[in-house]
Amino acid sequence: MEARVLDKQADGDVDIYWDFRRRLISAHFEPGLKLKPEELRLQYGCSASQLREILFRLSCDGLVEFQDNKGFKVPLASLELCNEAVEHRILIECEGARLSIEKGGLEWEAQMAAAHHKLAHVENKFEADQNSKELFDMWCECEWEFHETLISRCGSSLLIRKHRDIYDLHRMHMLAVSEGSGFRQDNIKEHLNILNAALDRDVEACQKGLANHLHKSG
Amino acid sequence: MEARVLDKQADGDVDIYWDFRRRLISAHFEPGLKLKPEELRLQYGCSASQLREILFRLSCDGLVEFQDNKGFKVPLASLELCNEAVEHRILIECEGARLSIEKGGLEWEAQMAAAHHKLAHVENKFEADQNSKELFDMWCECEWEFHETLISRCGSSLLIRKHRDIYDLHRMHMLAVSEGSGFRQDNIKEHLNILNAALDRDVEACQKGLANHLHKSG
DNA sequence: ATTCACGAAAATTTCGATATTTTTGTTTAA
DNA sequence: TTAAACAAAAATATCGAAATTTTCGTGAAT
Questions:
Q1: Chain-wide mean pLDDT for chain A?
Q2: Which one of A177, A181, A188, B114 is at 20 to 30 Å from A169 when CA atoms are compared?
Q3: Which among B160, B92, B158 is positioned nearest to A80, based on CA atoms?
Q4: Is the CB of B124 under 7 A from strand C?
Q5: Do B102 and B69 have their domain in common?
Q6: Closest by Cβ to A66, choosing from B9, B69, B159
Q7: Which pLDDT score is estimated for A13?
Q8: Which of A73, A102, A121 represents a domain boundary (last residue)?
């Protein structure tokens, strides 16, 4: 999460904005729930206007829904939107992976190995104790870091930003639809497949592994 | 422009928001220009807070830049960002075109023919009189309609939304970088190539024509 | 019993005033 | 002359109250 705070759109609301965003994509709010600035302000100790601004910004990415004179709410669980998000994420992430494989050097390989090492460690622990809230949060963070590292050498800051947007949207809808934690046993070997293909500089295998991984994620 | 007003994120600011967005992507504002809510309010007869909200929303799509305690401004012309926008647009539009070609029926073909007919008509007129502000605005509208129709049958509302976002971002940066109107002689036959490939259901030719068209656009 | 109309309550939107931060201009010291 | 310190002005951010819109509950008419 730390890395995200350093985003270019840093501002005074940074804590509230990112904290709220994190809670949204971690399914802390029930789909369909009304998000009233007047209530939320109490949790963050700021004014309703500020919350309104933040909610508007989140609505741009589809993380909250807005309707004129009806306010904001958590998007309803929608299998269709979830599928659209999956496909879009595959499109973006495969392109980012291809470019990274082409442009990335030894340093990138090392970062991939590091990210996967952390992820694999946490996934093995989480597999044993899937009720641990703490491990779940760690897994979310490591999963994000792995996928983000995969595309990090694509050379396009725009692609990286768009990837984060669709990653978050996909995660939110996935959790809303599946009602599980989003973790599957197969994750472990799927991530390994992706890592190996990336280190082998095998674009096709990497994209295939990615598409398979994401399709199964729901 | 009418079609866009019917966007899901309809609200009370709809006129101001879309009008301002249109002006941004039509290069009505000089890159780097400071956008002060306090000044802009006079043009729209509303409060500064409302403008601030709208500017925040536009900043989500990259159409305006925001810095904490420094306010908003029109993004500086950047060749690098323009190139990144081109590549991203190619990625999205090619995927949308592929899906439309696969899924679209006779109705879609007819809409493509209609959109191209209008576009070709305007392009020929605009070619003769490139100083006409009115024809330029018509061309912008027809160009958008043609490309939007091309992907309209992709089956994913998410892809369509993302396409609009990158289309606008690309157009804004293109106009900022090239300092021309964005219209080239070759546009006419490039659009025809794309139309023919689409009607022939030739995915590869269509994507190739699209990539060529967009690369040359800058 | 159902529908419609009306009014009260709640929620949302708008707004301008106040507080904070940044920028600008001036003076002073090195 | 340059740099630092300070003060004034401008710009930005925050906030809560007022205006508007929607929602909900009550009662009357079909």
A1: 92
A2: A188
A3: B158
A4: no
A5: no
A6: B9
A7: 55
A8: A73
Summarised one tens digit per residue, pLDDT across range B53-79 is 999 999 999 999 999 999 999 999 999
Interface test with chain B among A65, A84, A154, A173, by most B beta carbons within 10 Å? A84
Lowest mean pLDDT among A92-101, A113-122, B81-90, B173-182: B173-182
* Structure-block tokens of residue A118: 């952390």
Whether residue A51 lies within 8 A of chain B, CB to CB, comes out as no
* Rounded Cα distance, B155 and B95, in Å: 11
Mean pLDDT along residues B24-43:
94
A123 lies in the same domain as A213: yes
Query: Residue A54: is it exposed, middle or buried by C-beta count within 10 angstroms (0-12/13-18/19+)?
Result: buried
**What average pLDDT score do residues A190-215 get?**
98
Q: Are residues B63 and B90 in the same domain?
A: no
pLDDT at B3: 30
CATH code assigned at B34: 1.10.10
- Mean per-residue pLDDT, B173-177: 94
Q: Measured from the CB, is B190 under 7 Å from any atom of strand C?
A: no
Which nucleotides on strand C sit less than 7 A from a protein beta carbon? 11-17, 21-23
**Average pLDDT, stretch A102-127?**
97
Give me the mean pLDDT over the A47-63 stretch: 95
Are the CB atoms for B37 and B51 separated by under 8 Å?
yes
Strand D contact at CB of residue A14, distance < 7 A: no
Tell whether A5 is within 8 A of chain B (Cβ).
Answer: no
**How long is the CA B70 to C1' C28 vector, in angstroms?**
30
Same domain, A59 and A122: no
- Does A52 sit within 8 Å of B57, measured CB to CB? no
Residues 32-91/A with CB within 7 Å of nucleic chain C are 34, 36-38, 48-49, 52, 67-72
CATH assignment of the domain containing B173: 1.20.120.530
Whether residues B65 and B89 fall in one domain: no
A68 touches A123 (CB < 8 A):
no
Tokens coding A103: 């442009």
User: Edge to edge, what strands does the sheet with B65-67 contain?
Assistant: B34-35, B71-73, B65-67
Domain residues for the domain of B48 are 2-73
- pLDDT at position A11: 40
Kindly report, residue by residue over B178-207, the tens digit of the pLDDT.
878 888 999 999 999 999 999 999 999 999
Joined together, the tokens standing for residue A69 give 């004179």
List protein-proximal bases of chain D (any atom < 7 A from a CB).
11-17, 21-23
Say whether B88 and A61 touch across the interface (CB within 8 A). no
